[in-house]
Amino acid sequence: MNIQLSGVTKEFGKTAALSSVDANVKDGEFIAILGPSGCGKTTLLRLLAGFESPTEGYIEMDDKQVAAPYGVIPPEKRNIGMVFQSFALWPHLTVQEQIRFPLLHHKFVPSSIKKRKEARTQEVLELVNLTNMAERMPHELSGGQKQRVALARAVAAQPSLLLMDEPLSSLDAELRMEMRHEIQRIHRHTQTTVIYVTHDQSEALAMADRIIVMKDGAVEQIGSPETIYRFPQTEFVASFVGKANLVPGFWKKGVFHPNGNDMVAWEKREVAPYFMKRGVMPVRPEEFCLKKAGNGLTGRVENVQFQGRDVQYTILVGKDCWTVYHPAPGEFRIGEQVVVELAKEQSALRTHTEGHDNIISSTSSI
Ligand SMILES: Nc1ncnc2c1ncn2[C@@H]1O[C@H](COP(=O)(O)OP(=O)(O)OP(=O)(O)O)[C@@H](O)[C@H]1O
Q: What CATH number is attached to the domain comprising 270?
């Protein structure tokens, strides 16, 4: 299903939950809506489902208007599946009855599936690896198994759009990783358009084709996970996704002089104009390297955290603390003086070409 959101605004009294959101979703895409608590993610999903109408703007699905201030097509008249954080299974139905239910009652079940409801139920049970639990009741299932049933139920009737609201947030860390994989596999298998709400950046980066990053009801940036991570367009995106250090300094002839030190020059090919105008370079913790001596900025190790593959250092440079990931084993101790440099490969990044992203080369004049 293709979706177009145009100037979508939603106000609850004086609260603007969404402010003029424009976005498009292509058929079969996996879109993550990412942002902190209260930024309007659930409101956007509820508008897409048809539970709410916009105060301004409109939503089109496959070129048909489905939501506008004066009218909205309700959820039961849209061909969508939904998965929530709370699973929302019916307590009195077995696993296979939960999956069969939409096949019996959903308005949009394709006739090819209606004719083979039992076979389709078994097929979907297999898809989520629950064939041997078909007769179990919800209280006899683990959290991960319940979430699989919820997923199976949502995709059974082959919806054109699958909406998921923080579906993994009540699962433990290991199960979350497993279910991410499961959801990706189901998406590949069904080719359904997915809109997935999360506040977890690693979930969005790992699963989505494109991410819509939101803040205070507005879209901050839309792009592929790689673009969002490597080429943030605003301070919020840089710090919310991947915890970039926002290094102050000045740009001269496409070269950045951190902390106003014109003896140190950093070249990073692609930095958004937003940062260049503000005299800032966003640098990911892994884009820095630490040395005992060299042509960089001098700092002092404030804290060291062993993380397995990397060591996370907090380095005090001037009055700012920067986060630096350095491959383990750690070579630097708390209190030690170090030199912070931009890792070599950062200046050799290939030119990025994604059409909708407004990225310029730092070698162009500003
Ligand atoms: N029915 C409502 N009435 C009044 N205000 C609401 C209503 N629903 C949402 N809001 C407000 O709109 C804003 C966005 O809420 P929303 O639930 O969409 O955020 P969210 O990003 O999904 O947050 P979370 O991650 O905490 O679920 C919040 O300030 C919220 O308090």
A: 2.40.50.140
